[in-house]
C-alpha cells in the first residue's frame, strides 16, 4: 500500500483504488470495523506495508487466563442461589421466562394467581427453600380483584411487576437491582476508573432500564440526563452548549427515531461537538452485523445488554 493510503487506512468507506471494489467487492468498512472491535477488547492493531512488496498487520490482545475465566464464571452464577416465584398466565411469557432464568441457573416456580402465590410463600416462609423475590405480570396486578392479594404479598416478600413482551435485558437488570450483584461490580470498577463528574446523555425508552442505568451510573459519580427516544436525544444534544455532555449512551431500538438514525443526524449536526463526542451503542443485539451497523452509523463503541458496567466504564475512559 502507498504511504498516503496508510494514513487513512482505518477510515470508513476507504479503499485505495476503485478497481479494488470492482475486482473484489466490499465497501471499505472492514478495517474500520476490525480496529474498533480490537479496541473494544482493549487491544491494538498496527501495519507495516511497502508498495509492491507486501503488508503485515499485527494485532495485540490481552486475554484472560483460565483461572480468571473461572473466577468470572463463579461470580456470574451467584444469581443461582436465589429462588423466584412468578405470577404469570401467558404461556409464551412463561416459556421465555423459564429459558432466561435457566440460563442464570436460577430456581423459579410459576403460579397463575396472586392467591396461589400467597399460599406458596406461606408454606416456604422460614424454611431453607423460601422465595427471595416475586415477579408479577403487570396485567394481572392491574385487575382490581387482585389488588388486595398483591398488597398482602408485598408485606411477605419483595414484589416486582413485569410487562410483556418479556425481555432478557429487563429481567437481568431487574434481578441485578434486587440482588445487588452488578452494582458491586460497577462500584468496584469505578474504584479503578475515575469518571466522577462526567456528564452523559442517556437515550433509553424502557423505564426499568433507564431507572437501573441511571442509578448505577449516578452511584459511580456520573451526571446523567435521560431521554426517551432518538429524536429527543438529537434535539437535546443540538440545544446544548458546547461541553454540556462528554458522551452519549444510545439505545438502538427506540420509538420515533432509532439510535442509528439519531447518531447519523448528530454526526451531521452543526453542533461544535458533533464529530467528536463519543457515542456508545447499548443494545441487546450483539451479532457481528449489529456491531458493524453501529460503527457505520458513526458510533465509537458497542456495549451489549445486559450491560456490563465495568466494560462501559472502560470504554468511556478509552475513547475520551
Task: Note down, in words, how this protein is organized.
The chain is of the alpha/beta class. The chain folds into three domains: 3-60, 2-Layer Sandwich (Heat Shock Protein 90); 68-166, Response regulator (Rossmann fold, 3-Layer(aba) Sandwich); 188-319, Response regulator (Rossmann fold, 3-Layer(aba) Sandwich), CATH 3.40.50. Helices cover 46% and strands 18% of the residues. It has 15 helices and eleven strands. The strands form three sheets. Strands 8-7-9-10-11 form a five-stranded parallel sheet, with helices on both faces. The chain has a four-stranded parallel sheet with strand order 4-3-5-6, sandwiched between helices. A two-stranded antiparallel ribbon has the order 1-2. Helix 6 (114-124) runs parallel beside helix 8 (147-154), helix 10 runs parallel beside helix 15 (309-319) and helix 12 runs parallel beside helix 13 (259-268). The two termini are 31 Å apart.
Secondary structure elements and pairings:
Layout: H1 3-6, H2 18-24, H3 30-40, E1 44-50, E2 54-60, H4 66-76, E3 83-87, H5 91-103, E4 107-111, H6 114-124, E5 133-137, H7 138-141, H8 147-154, E6 159-162, H9 168-179, H10 181-192, E7 199-203, H11 207-219, E8 223-227, H12 230-239, E9 247-251, H13 259-268, E10 279-283, H14 288-297, E11 301-304, H15 309-319
Parallel strand pairs: 3-4, 3-5, 5-6, 7-8, 7-9, 9-10, 10-11
Antiparallel strand pairs: 1-2
Radius of gyration over C-alpha positions, nearest whole angstrom: 24 Å
Question: Distance between the terminal alpha carbons, to the nearest Å?
Answer: 31 Å
Q: What average pLDDT do the residues reach?
A: 82
The helix/strand series, from N terminus to C terminus, equals HHHEEHEHEHEHHEHHEHEHEHEHEH
CATH topology of the largest domain: Rossmann fold
CATH architecture of the largest domain: 3-Layer(aba) Sandwich
Q: Which stretches are poorly predicted, pLDDT < 50 over at least 5 residues?
A: 71-77, 181-192
Number of domains: 3
How much strand content do the residues show? 15-25%
Query: What's the CATH class of the largest domain, please?
Result: Alpha Beta
- The total of helices stands at 15
Shape: elongated
Amino acid at each position: 500500500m502507498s504511504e498516503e493510503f496508510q494514513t487513512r487506512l482505518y477510515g470508513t468507506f476507504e479503499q485505495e483504488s476503485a478497481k479494488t471494489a470492482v475486482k473484489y467487492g466490499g465497501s471499505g468498512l472492514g478495517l474500520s470495523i476490525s480496529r474498533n472491535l480490537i479496541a473494544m477488547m482493549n487491544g491494538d492493531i498496527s501495519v507495516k506495508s511497502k508498495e509492491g512488496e507486501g503488508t503485515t498487520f499485527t494485532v495485540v490482545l490481552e486475554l484472560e487466563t483460565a483461572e480468571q475465566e473461572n473466577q468470572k464464571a463463579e461470580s456470574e452464577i451467584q444469581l443461582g442461589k436465589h429462588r423466584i416465584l412468578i405470577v404469570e398466565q401467558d404461556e409464551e411469557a412463561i416459556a421465555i421466562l423459564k429459558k432466561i432464568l435457566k440460563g442464570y441457573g436460577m430456581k423459579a416456580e410459576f403460579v397463575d394467581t396472586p392467591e396461589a402465590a400467597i399460599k406458596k410463600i406461606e408454606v416456604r416462609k422460614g424454611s431453607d427453600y423460601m422465595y427471595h423475590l416475586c415477579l408479577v405480570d403487570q396485567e394481572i396486578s392491574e385487575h382490581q380483584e387482585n389488588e388486595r392479594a398483591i398488597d398482602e404479598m408485598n408485606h411477605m416478600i419483595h414484589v416486582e411487576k413485569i410487562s410483556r413482551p418479556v425481555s432478557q435485558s429487563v429481567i437481568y437488570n431487574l434481578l441485578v437491582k434486587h440482588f445487588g450483584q452488578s452494582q458491586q461490580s460497577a462500584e468496584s470498577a469505578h474504584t479503578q476508573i475515575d469518571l466522577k463528574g462526567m456528564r452523559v446523555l442517556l437515550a433509553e425508552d424502557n423505564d426499568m432500564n433507564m431507572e437501573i442505568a441511571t442509578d448505577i451510573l449516578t452511584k459511580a459519580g456520573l451526571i446523567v440526563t435521560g431521554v426517551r427516544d432518538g429524536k429527543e436525544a438529537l434535539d437535546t444534544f443540538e440545544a446544548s452548549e458546547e461541553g454540556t455532555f462528554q458522551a452519549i449512551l444510545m439505545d438502538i431500538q427506540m420509538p420515533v427515531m432509532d439510535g442509528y438514525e439519531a447518531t447519523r443526524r448528530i454526526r451531521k449536526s452543526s453542533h461544535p461537538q458533533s464529530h467528536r463526542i463519543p457515542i456508545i451503542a447499548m443494545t441487546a443485539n450483539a451479532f457481528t452485523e449489529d456491531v458493524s451497523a453501529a460503527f457505520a452509523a458513526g458510533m465509537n463503541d458497542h456495549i451489549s445488554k445486559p450491560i456490563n458496567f465495568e466494560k462501559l466504564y472502560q470504554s468511556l475512559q478509552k475513547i475520551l
